[in-house]
Amino acid sequence: MAFFTHQVRRAFSSSAVRNVVIKHVTIIGGGQMGAGIAQVAASTGHTVTLVDTSDDILKKSIKGIEGSLKRVAKKKFADKPEAAEEFVLKVLQNVSTSTDDASAVQGTDLLLEAIVENLKVKRDLFGRLDKLAPKHTIFASNTSSLSISDIASSTTRLDRFGGVHFFNPVPMMKLVEVIKTSTTSQETFDSLLNFSKVLGKTPVSCKDTPGFIVNRLLVPYSMEAIRLHERGHGSKEDIDIAMKLGAGYPMGPFELGDYVGLDTIKFIMDGWHAIEPDNPLFAPSELLNKLVAEGKFGKKTGEGFYKYK
Ligand SMILES: NC(=O)c1ccc[n+]([C@@H]2O[C@H](COP(=O)([O-])OP(=O)(O)OC[C@H]3O[C@@H](n4cnc5c(N)ncnc54)[C@H](O)[C@@H]3O)[C@@H](O)[C@H]2O)c1
């Protein structure tokens, strides 16, 4: 499939490439997150190349982006259907697709990875593309639970590597966690913060620690809710009602777990438990392990803590 190369726009200092102004973004992984990020980046005037492993997947990604854009346009241009149509077309024109990541990284300012949550696969991808991407290109991962430093060390551009963690669904969720490792340069970090702001998001600065801010608080909270239930302190329904009405949360912890995916929660917990086996916040749950072993991952499989039709 076609991809575009674009003029690189950079600000130079006397000695090194600094403060890359991100205009062209290459997103690797056109799943839930990658497609969402592509939509938002294209809507805010960036040119985007979306990369995945097959044309069929990419077709689905573009269809999803189009459907989401139409919903946005319907609200934005309520009484002007022509303007709405024009908006959707204009944004879609900013997105091209490719199954050839080696070509897609040419001339890009930012390489943003949103592929499967597996350290080896991410390291292999970045290590390979490091040799092919232009020198100024910033590399960033959207990982939820892996260490950015562990991913970045597969490359030689440790100063131009950071984390940009979006939330699902990307077009709706305002937050972006921008992660600075001990080797990320201030210029790279500032470019990523600025990029997040240009996307219309609110960035927060995070250190490269497990779960950054949101998941570091949210995942142990979800696990403690499950353990509370396992100890017989409350039904799932009562715990969900309690947190919604008592703490003002939009979803209870069991509803949220089913929405996020119980396999994802287990994957994150297992990873952290392996790093800190004595931390009681990261202790495994029998109930969660059982549900995942039975393939009950939540909404996406039709059953998790609750059943879905
Ligand atoms: N789903 C969430 O709520 C969420 C939130 C924040 C961050 N994340 C992180 O974002 C990343 C992606 O998550 P997702 O939910 O979008 O996953 P997903 O399964 O929906 O999408 C992943 C996509 O990557 C593609 N892919 C896999 N390996 C590839 C490769 N080598 N080259 C190109 N494409 C490849 C797959 O075909 C798939 O389309 C993960 O690291 C995850 O931890 C997820």
TrEMBL record:
Family the entry assigns: Belongs to the 3-hydroxyacyl-CoA dehydrogenase family.
Swiss-Prot/TrEMBL GO biological process terms: cell differentiation; fatty acid beta-oxidation; spermatogenesis
Pfam families xrefs: 3HCDH, 3HCDH_N
Boundaries of every 3-hydroxyacyl-CoA dehydrogenase NAD binding domain copy: 24-209
Record keywords: Acetylation, Differentiation, Fatty acid metabolism, Hydroxylation, Lipid metabolism, Mitochondrion, NAD, Oxidoreductase, Spermatogenesis, Transit peptide
Superkingdom in the source lineage: Eukaryota
Any one GO molecular-function label of the UniProt entry: (3S)-3-hydroxyacyl-CoA dehydrogenase (NAD+) activity
Site (Important for catalytic activity): H165
Annotated EC: 1.1.1.35
Pathway(s) of this molecule: Lipid metabolism; fatty acid beta-oxidation
Protein name: Hydroxyacyl-coenzyme A dehydrogenase, mitochondrial
Keyword Lipid metabolism found: yes
Residues given in the record as NAD(+) binding sites: G29, G30, G31, Q32, M33, G34, D52, E117, K122, S144, N168, K300
GO cellular component, one term: mitochondrial matrix
Positions contributing to CoA binding: S68, K75, S144
Cross-referenced InterPro entries: 3-OHacyl-CoA_DH, 3-OHacyl-CoA_DH_CS, 3-OHacyl-CoA_DH_NAD-bd, 3HC_DH_C, 6-PGluconate_DH-like_C_sf, 6PGD_dom2, Mito_3-hydroxyacyl-CoA_DH, NAD(P)-bd_dom_sf
Catalysed reactions, semicolon-separated: (3S)-hydroxydecanoyl-CoA + NAD(+) = 3-oxodecanoyl-CoA + NADH + H(+); (3S)-3-hydroxybutanoyl-CoA + NAD(+) = acetoacetyl-CoA + NADH + H(+); (3S)-hydroxyhexadecanoyl-CoA + NAD(+) = 3-oxohexadecanoyl-CoA + NADH + H(+); a (3S)-3-hydroxyacyl-CoA + NAD(+) = a 3-oxoacyl-CoA + NADH + H(+)
